[in-house]
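Issue: ligand-bound run for thiamine diphosphate - logging full I/O for the record.

Environment: standard queue, default settings, no custom constraints.

Inputs:
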Amino acid sequence: MNTVNNQKNAGFSGYFPTWCPGCGNFGIWAALKTAFTNLSFTPENFAVIFGIGCSGNMNDFLWADSFHALHGRAIPNAVGVKIANHKLPVVAIVGDGDCYGEGGNHLMHAARGNHDITVIVHDNRVYGLTTGQVAPTALKGFKAKSTPSGIIEVPLNPIALAITQGATFVAQGFSGDINHLVGLIEKGIKHKGFSLVNVFQPCVTFNSENSYAWYREKIYKLGEDYDSSDINNALAKSMEAETKIPLGVIYETDRSTYTDSLPQITQKSLLESLAPNLEIIAKLMDEFV
Amino acid sequence: MTDVTVKIGGEAGFGIMTTGLLMGKIATRSGYHVFEYPEYPSLIRGGHNVVDIRISDEKVYSQKQKVDVLVCLNEETLKLHKDEIKIGGMIVIDNDKTDKSIIEKIPQNVTLVPLPFGQILKDNALPNVMLNNIALGALVYLLGADFEILKTLISENFARKGEDITSKNITASQYGYDYMKDKYSAGYNKKIPKMEKAESRMYITGNEMIGLGAIAAGCKFYCAYPMTPSSVLLHYLAAKGEKVGMVVKHAEDEIAVINMALGASWAGVRSMVGTSGGGFALMVEAVSLAGITETPIVVVMGQRPGPATGMPTWTEQGDLLFVLHSGHGEFPKIILAPGDMEESYKLTLEAFNLADKYQTPVFIMGDKYLQEGHESVDRSSISSYQFSIDRGKLLTQEQLDKITDYKRYLITDDGISPRAIPGMRNSLHQANSYEHREDGHTTEEAFERKVQVDKRNKKTATFLSSDAKLPKFYGDADAQLTLISWGSMKGPILEAMKEKEGKFNLLHFSYIWPLPKVKLTEILASLKNTLLVENNSTGQLGQLISMVTGIGIKNKLLKYDGRPIYPEEIIKEVDKLL
Ligand SMILES: Cc1ncc(C[n+]2csc(CCOP(=O)(O)OP(=O)(O)O)c2C)c(N)n1
Ligand code: SF4
Ligand SMILES: [Mg+2]
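Outputs:
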C-alpha cells in the first residue's frame, strides 16, 4: 500500500483506498477530508468512529484518531465518546446496512437524545463488503444475491425516520457532487446536536441500477426559498416520490443536546474530572448507617 | 447469644421490602449484626413477597431456614411458611382475615399472636398502605427493640413526602406497638434492645457496595439497561450520579450499553456496565470488541436462573462458564466473584485497576443473592480500606510528547501496550476491531496476526505472575473435609462452619480467572476429602477446576431451584461425609 499526499488535505490522507475504481466512496472520502480541513481540524483534535462495511474500511484511508467499531454499533460508540469528552467533535462513518439495518435501533435513540455527533451514511442501497445483498434502502423489487426474485420490502426512509425520531439536523448529499457534499458535512459537524447526512453513493460493482446516471436524472438541490426549519415542509420533502430526490439540508432545528442537559459536566468534561471525591464517598457511606 | 430470625410476608405492593429494610436498620442501629434476604416473584402486584431478617450479636453470614417470628400481612404468608417456625416461635396474624381451618393447622408449640390490622386501620381511618407500619410497630414491641429508632427511620424515609405522611406512618406503627404492649406485654422470648455501645455499621446490599466501589474507583460512566438483579445498581448510581460527577445512562438496549461504555472508555473515562444473563448475551459481541481493541471495561454480571427469562427474581450461579467463554475469538479476560459485601466493594475497586492495567474486560460475577440481600457491614472496614487508583499504561500528554512514532498496539514484554486516548497530541492512533498491526492499521498478514494474538495472550501470563490470587482458605487447616465454592455461597458455608467448627474448612474462589495451574494443582492435591458447593446444576467451578488442573471433585452439593443454599443443607451434606 502507498500513502497519498494530497496537499490540500495534508494530514488526513491515509493509505490509498482499496475500493473498486469508480466507487462512490471516493467522493465521500474527498469531501470529508476537505470539510475537516475547512473546519481547521487536525487528525488529533476530533474522533472518528467507523462502522463495518466498504464504507467503514475508510479507517485505513483517513488519518484521524479513530475507533473501528463492530458492524452496526458505531453510533453507540460515538455517543459514549461524546459523553466522556463532549468537547471533542465526534463523527461516525457508516454504511446503510450498518446504520439502518444492523444498528437501526441506535439511530432512532441517538436522534431522540440529540447526542451531538455527526453520522455520515454511505447509502449505496446494497451491502458492498459482503458482495452484494440488499440494504434496507434498496428499492422495492431490487434483485440481489439474497433476494434473487426481488426484494419484497419497501425501502426504509432515512430522512423521514431521522426527522420523526428527533434528529435536529438532517441532510442529503450525493457523492457525485463533492463540493455540495463538503458544505453539508461542514454544516452537520458545526450543528450542535444529532446530525445525519445521508449520502447517495453509487456502488459500481453490486448495484448497476442506482448508478451515477440514475441519480443525476433524479436529484435536485433545494433552493434558497426552501425553509429547512419547518418540520412539515421537511416531512413533505422526505416523502416525495423517488422520481425526484432532494439534496441539501432538509431539516434543521435547535434543541439542547444530551450532554448540555447533564449538570455534572457543565463546567468540565468527564475526562477533565476523573478523580473520585473522597469526601462525598464518606457521606454516601453515612447514608447507609 | 442472641440469634433471631424474623420473616415478614405479604402481597406484593404492600411495602414488604421496606418493612424488611426498616427492621434490619433498626437492628443494625441498635448494634446487632444483620443479614436479610428478600424473595419475590416477577410481579408488581398480587404476588407473594417475603423477607427474612436474621439478627444476632455475633457476625452472621447468611439466612437460616428456621424462623422465630413470622409476621403475616396476609393469609398466604401463613399458608406458605407456617412449617418454617421454630418450636417456641411466634406467628403474628390478623385473625379476622384468616381462615380458621388454616389457623387450626398451626403447630401446638408455636404462639399465635392475633393482630387485628384491618380493625386498627378502620378505627383510625388509616389507608391500607399503612398496614406494614402497624406490623413493624408490633414487631418492634415483641422484640423489645427501640421504638425511637423506628420513629427516626420513618422520619428519614419519608422526609421528602412531608410531615403529614411522616406523622401518619409513625402513628400507624405506634398503634401496632401499643396493641402488643397492651395484649402481649411479655413479647417474644428473645429480645434485641439497643446496645449501649453500638458499632457504626452500614446496612447495605451488594449492588450498593458495588456502586460505592465504582464511585470510589473514579468510574465516571455507568451504562445499563434494567434487569434484575442489577437494576438496583442502576437506580443507586443514577440517584447519586450528579452528586459524584458520574454520568449514568439507561441506553436503548444492552448492545448499546456496552458499546457506549467502550466508546467512553476509549475516550479515557473509567466505565462500567451492569446486567444479567439475558442482557449479557446481547453484549457478547462487544466483549470481543473490547478484547481486540484492548479497551478497558468493567462488567457487572448479576446472575439469576436461566435459560432465557428463567426465574427473573430468584438466584443462581449458572453463568460462570458462559462468561468465561463469552466473546468470539481468543483474548484475555479477568473474572472476579465477590463472596460478601466487603469483597463487593474491594473487588470493584480492583476490577477497575485490573481493567486499566490489562486493557481488557474484567467481570464482577454477582447474583440475586449477593446483590439484593442486605447485610450489616462495619463502616470502618470499608471507609478505612486503603487503595490507590492505577490506570496502568495510560499515557499522559507529557509522556506522549517524548514518544516518536507512537504505536497503540506496540509489542511489549508483558503484552500490554502504552495507551493513548483520542484528542491527545502526538497520539494519532486507531483502536481497531479488525486484526491490526502495531500502529493499529488493519492487517491480514499471517505474521502480524500471530504477533498480535501472542501479545494479547501474554497479558494472561502477566496477570498470572503478578496479579492472580489463589483461592482463600477459611477455617481449620487440618480439617478432614474441604468445601470448595465461589462467589456468594461463601456466606452460607461460613455460617454452617460455625456449627461444625473444626470439622471442615472452605476453599473459596473470588479470583476465578485466569487460574494459576501449578499452585492450584498443588493445593487441590493436598486436600483429604472435598465437597463442591455451587448454586447451579452442573458444578461449573468444578468443571473449570478440572479443566485447569485435571483434578475432579468427587462430592457435590448443587442446588438450582432458584433459592440460595441454606447452612442447614450444607450441614446435612457435611454430616454424610464425615
Ligand atoms: C454482526 C455482524 N453481522 C454481519 C457481518 C458481516 N458484514 C460485514 S459488512 C456487512 C454489510 C455491509 O453493508 P453496509 O453496511 O451497507 O456497508 P457497505 O459495505 O455497503 O459500505 C455485513 C453484513 C458483520 N461484520 N457483523
Ligand atoms: S463493492 Fe461497491 S461499495 Fe464496495 S468498494 Fe466496490 S463499488 Fe464501492
Ligand atoms: Mg451499503
